[in-house]
Amino acid sequence: MTPRGAVIFDRDGVLNRDVGYACRAEQIEWIEGAVEAVRAVNAAGLLAFVATNQSGVARGYYTEADVQALHGWMAEQFAAAGARIDAFAYCPHHPEAPLATYRADCDSRKPGPGMIRRLLADHGVDPARALMIGDQPRDVEAAVAAGIEGVLFTGGSLLSFVAPLLARIAAAPAVTGPRS
Question: For a tag on the chain, would you pick the N or C end, based on fewer CB atoms within 10 A?
Answer without folding.
Answer: C
